[in-house]
Amino acid sequence: MEEFKNHTFVICAYKESKYLEECIESLEKQIVKSNIIMCTSTPNDYIKNMAQKYNIPLYINEGESGIGQDWNFGVSKTTTDYVTVAHQDDIYNENYLKEIVKELNNGKDFVIAFGNYEEIKKKQRSYSGKTTFEKEDMLRVPFIKVNDEINYDELCGREIKNSKYYIKQALQTIDFELNNVGGSVKSEAVIDATTKALTENARKMIFDSDFILYLKEENKEQPYFALKVDNTDVLVSVNVDECKD
Fold first, then answer.
1. How far apart are CA 81 and CA 11, in angstroms?
2. DSSP 141-184
3. Is the Cα dihedral 138, 142, 143, 149 positive or negative?
4. Strand order in 144-151's β-sheet?
């Protein structure tokens, strides 16, 4: 196993980054092994557990914090001549340190050594590989089946704007299925309304002709869901219970 003990990776961790473990793993997988430490000015259980999991020394910056101060603090905790400050969302190629060491050995009087890098998202956007399936390709489709009923109790008792109707009950059923043949989704809705407030002895009104159901978050002007029902055959036959107070 190749080693370069005169070098240290300093991982600068901040809060609870979901990329931290992937960064650590990329350093652990280096072909040429070196020292790894972790520093943070935002200590928490997540960072502490990551350091313990990979047996990495953890140093807490209790002084002035900030990106520059945190990096300088991390470098100050090393004892090697060469240091790589690894931000928590950096991922290093397994040959990174091997190539750095090779260049260091080929020259002299080095002040800094660095390699090329690119954003992973940018790399994904510039993908130039195959975009069609070939005979030898493999695709494993997850089989999903969802059959759910949603009762919009928060709508009960509310007046339908610009009308004399009050909503007694509104519900929606969702039937979704995905398999190796394809996918399908079926959504049905029913609404029961009355001409008087629910606190009164109101008569029951059933929507048996075309209607549109809107769902809107409180204090929002625009609805986030709209469903036009122009075929009563799609409505579900249900037993409508009295709305709760």
1. 17
2. PPPEEEEEEEE-GGGTTPBPTTSS-EEEEEEEEEEEEE-SS-EE
3. negative
4. 144-151, 166-178, 183-194, 204-206
Report how far Cα 101 is from the mean position of its chain's Cα atoms. Answer: 37
Distance CA 104, CA 110 (A): 7
Cα–Cα distance measured from residue 67 to residue 47, given in angstroms and rounded to the nearest whole number: 17
Looking at residue 233, the DSSP 8-state letter turns out to be G
Averages of pLDDT over runs of 10 residues in the chain (245 residues) are 90 92 95 96 95 96 87 93 91 91 80 73 61 71 74 77 78 77 74 63 56 70 69 54 45
* Inter-residue long-range contacts of 87-90, CB under 8 Å, 24+ positions, other chains counted: 87/12, 87/23, 88/11, 88/12, 88/13, 88/14, 88/17, 88/19, 88/20, 88/23, 89/17, 89/19, 89/20, 89/23, 90/23, 90/26, 90/117
Three-state DSSP at 244 gives coil
Degrees to nearest 5, angle at CA 99 with 47 and 35: 35
